[in-house]
UniProtKB/TrEMBL annotation:
Function: Together with LptD, is involved in the assembly of lipopolysaccharide (LPS) at the surface of the outer membrane. Required for the proper assembly of LptD. Binds LPS and may serve as the LPS recognition site at the outer membrane.
Keyword Lipoprotein in annotation: yes
GO terms of biological process kind: Gram-negative-bacterium-type cell outer membrane assembly; lipopolysaccharide transport
Subunit details: Component of the lipopolysaccharide transport and assembly complex. Interacts with LptD.
UniProt-recorded name of the protein: LPS-assembly lipoprotein LptE
Keyword annotations: Cell outer membrane, Lipoprotein, Membrane, Palmitate, Signal
InterPro entries attached to this UniProt entry: LPS_assembly_LptE
Matching PANTHER family: LPS-ASSEMBLY LIPOPROTEIN LPTE (PTHR38098:SF1)
Family designation: Belongs to the LptE lipoprotein family.
């Protein structure tokens, strides 16, 4: 009886929240000075640049071409690495730790530069018997890590709010 009551209450709350049009607000925390910026990268079509551009747009940041009075988010260095975490009895790699490091900087129109960085790591169980499936899984994990790193960079841009307002 108590279990059914909890389930009914949870369902009622869920329906009321979905019916009232509750939506999470994207981009509400990004400082107004950083709402319009230029994204620069040595390779603008790299996977990390594309993911960062998408995350910025999801957070209502207006991306423009290079202008004089617009802050610049510059991607400096993107490094990926994988390290063996464990091995099978036969000496083959069993588990790896995937590492992604992104270094960037935000340059304001007054030429003040703030370095920001993001580090993401994940474990990956590597089974050589299912090489094709594991390769596809590894690609999905790398893409998820890039999205997480982009969100970390945006969060660090939000943290720059006090420096930007000075």
């Amino acid at each position: 009886m108590l279990k059914q009551l909890k389930r009914l209450l949870f369902t009622a709350i869920l329906f009321s929240l979905s019916a009232c049009g509750l939506q999470f607000q994207n981009g509400g925390l990004i400082p107004p000075a950083l709402q319009t910026l230029t994204l620069e990268s040595s390779d603008p079509y790299s996977e990390m640049a594309i993911v960062l551009r998408k995350q910025l747009q999801l957070n209502n940041v207006n991306l423009v071409e290079s202008q004089t009075n617009v802050p610049v988010l510059h991607l400096h260095k993107i490094s990926t690495n994988d390290k063996v975490a464990s091995i099978f009895k036969h000496g083959r790699e069993a588990e790896k730790v995937l590492l992604l490091e992104v270094e960037a900087s935000v340059k304001l129109p007054n030429n003040t530069t703030f370095p920001i960085s993001a580090k993401v790591n994940r474990t990956f169980f590597d089974n050589s018997r299912a090489a094709l499936a594991k390769s596809a899984e590894k690609d999905v994990i790398w893409n998820d890590m890039r999205e997480q790193a982009a969100r970390q960079l945006i969060t660090k841009m939000v943290a720059l709010q006090h420096q930007v307002q000075k």
